[in-house]
């Protein structure tokens, strides 16, 4: 016997709204590395080699891909200086900077609920 309430099925066009148009929503915000790059650029422009120091666990290829995607989405600018040796700096745009407060809120939520998430993971693994 099924005691669950009867619910309407999810519509096939659930995400076909103008404000949720296919691949246009910038899910990059929630990807694996954007948050840490945002944090690194929070205080001002940085060179690739500077970013590599705290982000040493990210391969150069993946960091480059992340920076390019963030530039494409308008979160940062890449400025190449005509110098010898060449110098390139990455800097948050106003749009990228607007993500700092949500990032801070997410970090605060994570700190407040870390023990609950850890416990849930342990219970899941024990099953």
TrEMBL record:
SUPFAM superfamilies: Winged helix' DNA-binding domain (SSF46785). Pfam families: HxlR (PF01638). Residues 20-118 form the HTH hxlR-type domain. PROSITE patterns: HTH_HXLR. Keywords: DNA-binding, Transcription, Transcription regulation. InterPro entries: HTH_HxlR (IPR002577), WH-like_DNA-bd_sf (IPR036388), WH_DNA-bd_sf (IPR036390). Transmembrane segments: none annotated. The keyword Ubl conjugation does not apply. PANTHER family: TRANSCRIPTIONAL REGULATOR, MARR FAMILY, TRANSCRIPTIONAL REGULATORY PROTEIN. This is Winged helix-turn-helix transcriptional regulator.
């Amino acid at each position: 016997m099924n005691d669950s309430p009867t619910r309407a099925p999810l519509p096939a066009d659930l995400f076909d709204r103008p404000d949720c148009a296919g691949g246009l929503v910038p899910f990059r915000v929630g990807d694996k590395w954007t948050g840490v790059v945002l944090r690194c650029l929070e205080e001002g422009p940085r060179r690739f080699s500077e970013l590599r120091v705290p982000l040493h666990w990210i391969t150069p290829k993946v960091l480059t891909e992340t920076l390019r995607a963030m530039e494409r989405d308008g979160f940062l600018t890449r400025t190449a200086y005509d110098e010898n040796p060449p110098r390139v700096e990455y800097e948050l745009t106003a749009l990228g900077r607007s993500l700092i407060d949500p990032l801070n809120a997410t970090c605060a939520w994570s700190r407040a609920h870390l023990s609950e998430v850890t416990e849930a993971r342990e219970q899941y693994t024990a099953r």
